[in-house]
Structures are given as C-alpha cells and as structure tokens.
Amino acid sequence: MKDKRFIVSSSPHIRDLTNNAEIMWSVVVALVPAIISAVYFFGLQALVIILTSVLGAVVTEYLFQKARGKKVTISDGSAVVTGILLALTLPPASPLWMVLIGSVVAIGLGKQVFGGLGHNPFNPALVGRAFLMAAYSKPMSSWILDGQTTATPLPTINTALMNATTSATVAEVVEFTYWDLFIGRIGGCLGETSALALLLGAAYLLYKGFIDWRIPTGMLSTVFILTLIAGRDPLAHLLAGGLILGAFFMATDMVTSPVTKRGRWIFGVGAGLIVVIIRLWGGYPEGVMYSILIMNTAVPLIDRFTRPRSFGEVA
Amino acid sequence: MRALTFKQGIYLEENKSLTSDKPLKKANRPAQVIIPMQQHIGVPCKPLVKRGDHVEMGEKIGDIDGFISAPIHSSVSGTVKEIRTVLTPEGKLCEAVVIEADPEDRLAEGISVKGDLEDLNPDEIIDIIREAGIVGMGGATFPTHAKLRIPEGKKAEYLIINGAECEPFLTGDYRLMLERPEDIVYGMKALMKAIGAEKGIIGIEDNKADAIETLQRAIDGENNIEIKKLITKYPQGGERMLIKAILNREVPAKGLPIDVGVIVNNIATAVAVADAIKKGMPLIERSVTISGPGVNEPVNLIFRIGTPIEELLAEAGGLTADAAKVIIGGPMTGCAQPHLEISATKGTTGIIVLTENEVEAFDPQPCIRCARCVDACPELLMPLNLARYAEHGMLEQLEKYQVLSCIECGICSYVCPARRPLLHNIRIGKAEVMAKNASSKQG
Question: Which of A120, A268, A270, B427 could disulfide-link A114, Cβ–Cβ 3.0 to 4.6 Å?
C-alpha cells in the first residue's frame, strides 16, 4: 500500500451519469410517437422519407468529421435527431432525392461548417428545410397523397376564415373538427399533423428535464392570445400547421436557444409573435420555421441581456 | 416543521447509510504522528519544539503571531523525532513536527476545567478558543477566534450551527449530533456568549430525522435556541445557502455572514469549543468518516491530529484491490491525494475512496448549451460562460459575470452532460482575476 499511487484531479470527484448522447437519444425516443403517426396516416412512404433523411444526415456528419480529421461522433445521436426532425417537416410526397439534399444541407451548412455540435447558431433541421423551401418550392408545397391533391389545413382555414363573414369557428367553415386536428387526421407535413403524438413525446422530454417548459409555453400562449385578439380561431392556429412540433422540438433545441430562464421566455414569446405576424400578414401560410430561425439569431444577445443577478450581487 | 431551502442546487445520491449506523470509535494511537504546521487558512505556525524534545499530550507545539492563525498542539505524549517538510491534504508544502508516541498519553500541564460558562466573559471565551487552536471544522479551517471577533459597527444577532453535512458519504457530524448533543448545545451557548448573539439556530437536513429529535431533546428548556429542518439538497451546508434557507437573508457577494448579522459555526467546532472550556482540552482529535466503495469496512472514527491516513484506512479494513482515488473531504469539494503519506488534520472531515468504476477518464465533449449548470448553480452564476471566458483568459468578462462569487461547490462539473471540467477552468479564471486585482492594487 505504501508505494501505491492514486489518480489526482480537481473536485468534484463524482459526476452525474447523464451525457450528451443520452439527451440526444431521448429526443429520438420522444419522436417515436410522431414517426408512428406519420406512418399510420401517410403510409410506409413516410418511413422511407425519414430513413433517407437520417441516413443523409449521419453520413454527412461522418464525412465532414473524417475530412476535418476530427473524432467521429455519429453515435451521439445528434445527427439522427436532425435527420428525423427535417423529415417530419417535409410533405408526404417529397421525392427522395430532395430529402437527401435537405439532410446534407442541414448537417453540412447548418452544423458542420460552424464547427459541429454545440457551435451552430441555427437549428440545423430548419436550415435544411429553409434551403428546400427556397430551392424546390413546388415539391415543398404539393400535397399529393394517394393520387389526390389535398390542401393543408392551415391555408384552408385561413382562406375560409378570411372569407367567412363574422366570428366563424373552424368547424363552420371547413370540414375538419378540432379532434381531427388534434389526433392528426388531416393533411400536412409528415410529423406536424398529430398534436397528440407530439405532446406524448414532449411530455417525456419535460419529465426527463431535457427541454425547458418556458419556451413552448411562451410560444404557444403568445400565438393563442394574439390570434384570439385578432379574431381568428386560436385553437386551430395551435393545432394546425407546425406549431406544436416547432415549439416543443425545435425552439427548445439546447444549442440554439437561450441558457437563462428569462431568456427562454423572451425567446418563446418572440417566436410566437413572429409566427402570428407571418401567418396573419405575411406571404406564407405557415410561419414556424422562420420564427425560430429569426429568434436563433437573437440568442447571443438575449443571453447577454438576461444574465441572472447572482446570489447576493450588489448592483 | 416545514423543511427550508435555498434556490437551485441539486439532489445527490447520499451514500450515507454505509456509515450512518456506526458509532464514532476511537482510532488506535499511531506509533508516530506527523503534525503539519498549517492546518488553518492563514499564516502557518512556527514549530515551538525541536528534535529530541519531550512533549505531553495537549502541549502547544506550534504558534505564530497573526490574527488569522491558530496554534497547534501535540496529540500524543512522546519525543520529537524530527521537523520536516510534508505535503498537506490541500496539496501545499509546509513544515511538520514528527513525534514518536509513547503509550502513556500524559496530559500537558494546565489542561483542566476553564471555569463555568456563566463566569467567563466574551473575551475570555475567545481567548480559550484561540489557545485551544480551534478552526472551522466543516473543512474550511478558518480560525474560529478570528471569526468570533465582531468587527466594529456590526452586530451578531444569530449564531447558526451548521448541521447540514450535505456532502455525500460524510456522517461525522451526524454521529456527533446523536452522541454528543449536550456538548453541542454547551458549545453553542459559549459561542453565543462570545459574539453576543441573542438567538441560536441549529440547521439540520431532513435526512437526519433522529439527529433533529435528539437535539430537540437537548435544547429542551433553552428558550433562545431552536432547530430548523432543511431540505436535503446540495450545497445546503454552504454558509451562504444555509443563511438564505434559515433566515431568508442574502449575504452580499464579497461580503461575510456578519454583514447580515450572522456567525456560522459547524457542529464539530461547537463540540471542540465545549471540550476546550469544560476540560481545557485543545483541538487534538476530531471525527472523520472513512468510506466509499474503495474501502472494505467503512467506519466513523475519532482520530488524533497528525495520524497518517494510511493507518486510518487500515482501521476501515484497508483499501479494495480496485481503489483508484483517495479523497480527503467529501467527493464534491474534497482533495484527491497522490499517495497515502499524508496526515489527517483539523480539517479532515472524511477520507473517501473511489474505485476504478467511479473514476472515469477525462473526455470532454462539446458544450451543447443545455444550461443544466445555469439552472443548478447555487450562486446563480452562468458557469458555461465563466468556463469559456477562463479558457480564453477574458478577465473583464469573468469579473462582469461575477466569477469571484463562485463557491467552488462543484455542481456545474457534476451536472455537465458533456463532461466538461467547468469548475476546473473557473478556478483558474478566479485565480487570474484575483492576481490581477492584487497587482493593480500594488501598482
């Protein structure tokens, strides 16, 4: 025992077991209900799109890391999350070549050019989607399913409500009910239609403490209140379109959202505000993607201005 | 009684059941003690003895003039073998007196009852405490007498006795609360008299229900002492968190508890004060928990100051074959030891041994800005920013983000899912800011 030498390092000497990979793979688990509902409502083609996107994301991450001579970290799950999230924001009839380009752009331009995990200012999946919207607007807005063209509910609702005379509710002007919107029996992108499936996953992440409740609460309540004031159908605005997916799974992305509690409120409310502005007065029927990307740019500023007053700090 | 707490912090696996049922046992007298001349924060002592001298148990062997210091006494009777430089548990080099112990334990002259508490005035109490070499025994080892001299213009309303013992594994204070409740109350009364505090409060975490019960019985009839139950949460034993939880007062950053009318002392310190007054016995022994998966039979011991830790570990059944890290103190704030040729001192609350399983290699991943460190920091700092600024030597930013408020509790590194050495970097940043401030004062 006399000559034995021991490991020396500075305190603390114990560590919590949670690691980056556990957080990322938990997000994957949380997205399983949404994947299942996508397959249920849109058929096996949905699964093929999701797998293509994941494959594109993971391979791109691998190639970038190899090329930069960095450690390959594809097993940490972060590229998988990006792949799934991108796929869930695509129309069910997306051509696979387009899906692949989207996922390469998401990881390449959205993440690796900035230095990889933790360094990207924008949500990578949304960068991929924004690219596809700009480059391939036609396939990105065609809603052909089983040979039939379907409109997504949000533009339908918007148009219908605009044309209706007075305070019409969604049930009076279009053929779907709130229940249809809630469980996802409607047209739309792969993963955004079923609020039920998304909320199940979100509840799991909230329980694990891997997403912060302030961002979705701020975002959803802002949209609800403002559309209510504007005389629109607030429930329809919550349930139709990509708001639930965006608020719980994209706005909460740790890397691209504020680290302070006050900052998260500002981020959520700001994103909600931009959604409403785009939806009611902008050229797009949807606004979730741009609202989050725009708020992403403000994160360093928000963090700087919301540094908490430290314990016993004298101004 | 509603349990009180502070903002943020974390819940740790306690691991106290390894030793909580084991009464404090007197450790064997070592063949020789190696007593470092620095066992307190402040100026190191000068040895008062030389090679060949005979010393008695409780005899003063080191002292120095200086407000922030505390004398050091022999924990055995015997012969001074040599004076040499040793490594302290905190990793500093200092002189130490090596004494061969004889089996007689002859008490030094003048070790006797110091009189009734009623007859002693505050100055006399503080002098007794200084002469007994008492320091903060929760691990910080700030000289107690220095803490008790209330600065001009301040008033101590409350004495708080810290019974939180929030570090995992440690059960020494818990055992003292069960085994020596009367002495804790006696020491408390002496400390209250010394600082002129009208009220005394003992704060205890709610995982120690029987300690609360035992002390409740011991304070029966005392109308100015009460017990407050605290939520078991780390770092409840940090004095700033303790005062916040009990009195809802915030000690200002860069301030001291006395700025909000409070003096905090630890359970073991109160017991040492009782020993110093009731028996005249200086601080020559203390409680320690020897535990962790790397020792065979975890125990609570009372050991003589200067006992080599190797002998204390032997009393805990020795190390397991896979023992990999020896920590003096608790696993969150303690110091890892390179080898076992180290003496246990006045600040040694625990010796915790971890095995290869618990000691993982450093492999930091990128920060994913999860903010778990921001959400848990008990000082409400932004550790991810501080660590980054420290890595890049950004001193202005470090100060703006209040780096000097960091109490080094270790929570940020503990919760980090990217396994980044946050506190390690913040410590470097703190040191650089302090060095800069010191040199700008001189210049």
Answer: A120
| Residue B151 phi, psi (nearest 5) | -60, 150
Residues A182 and A262 in one domain: yes
**Residue pair A219/A251 in contact by the 8 Å Cβ criterion:** yes
> Rounded to an integer, what distance in angstroms lies between the CA atom of residue A193 and that of residue A27?
18
Whether chain B has a CB inside 8 Å of the CB on A259: the answer is yes
Q: Do A264 and A225 touch, CB atoms closer than 8 A?
A: no
Judgement on whether residues A295 and A177 belong to the same structural domain of the protein: yes
Does residue A89 sit within a domain? yes
Q: Nearest residue on chain B to A299, judged by CA atoms? A: B369
Are A91 and A31 members of one domain?
yes
- Give the homologous superfamily in CATH for domain B117-278: NADH-ubiquinone oxidoreductase 51kDa subunit (3.40.50.11540)
Q: Which domain holds residue A264?
A: 151-189+205-301
Domain with CATH 3.40.50.11540 in chain B: 117-278
Predicted local confidence at residue A281, as pLDDT = 85
Mean pLDDT of A20-49: 94
CA distances from B366 to A19, A20, A78, B420 (A): 11, 9, 12, 8
**pLDDT tens, residue by residue, A198-222:** 999 999 999 999 999 999 999 999 9
Identify the CA nearest to B298 among candidates B27, B19, B26.
Answer: B19
Residues of B in contact with A259 (CB under 8 A): 369, 371, 374, 382, 384
Number of domains composing chain A:
2
Q: How far apart are CA A29 and CA A178, in angstroms?
A: 27
Q: Considering A140, A161, A181, which residue would you say is the last residue of a domain?
A: A140
In whole angstroms, what separates CA A184 from the centre of its chain?
Answer: 17
> Which chain A residue lies closest to B386 (C-alpha atoms)?
A307
**Per-residue CA distances from B341 to A5, A211, B348 (Å):** 10, 47, 15
My answer on whether A126 and A223 are in the same domain is no
Burial class (CB in 10 A: 0-12, 13-18, 19+), B327: buried
Nearest in space to A107 (alpha carbons), one of A89, A92, A122: A122
Cα–Cα distance measured from residue B387 to residue B415, given in angstroms and rounded to the nearest whole number: 14
pLDDT tens digits along A154-192: 666 555 554 444 444 545 555 667 777 787 767 678 888
| Chain B closest-CA separation from residue A163 CA (Å) | 45
* Interface with chain B: mutation pick from A11, A265, A299, highest number of B CBs within 10 Å: A11
Residues A161 and A277 in one domain: yes
A104 lies in the same domain as A218: no
* CB-nearest partner of B367 from A18, A118, A310: A118
Q: How confident is the model at residue A284 (pLDDT cuts 50, 70, 90)?
A: confident
Across the interface, of B250, B371, B411, the residue whose CB is closest to A259 is: B371
- Residues β-bridged to residue B96: B36, B84
Of B251, B366, B414, the CB nearest to A116: B366
Identify the CA nearest to B334 among candidates B315, B319, B353, B316. Answer: B353
The answer, for A315 touching chain B at a CB cutoff of 8 Å, is: no
CB B310 within 8 A of CB A2: yes
Q: How far apart are the CA of A13 and the nearest CA of chain B, in angstroms?
A: 5
Chain A residues with beta carbon closer than 8 angstroms to that of B312: none
- d(CA B23, CA B26) in angstroms, rounded, equals 10
Size of interface A-B (CB pairs under 8 A): 166
**Interchain CB contact of A301 with B (< 8 Å):** no
Mean pLDDT of B364-378: 95
* Residue B312 to residue B24: CA distance in whole angstroms: 13
CA B183 from chain centre, in angstroms, equals 19
In a domain, A310, yes or no: no
Q: Are residues A282 and A234 in the same domain?
A: yes
Nearest CA in chain A to B334: A11
Answer yes or no: do A97 and A119 share one domain. yes
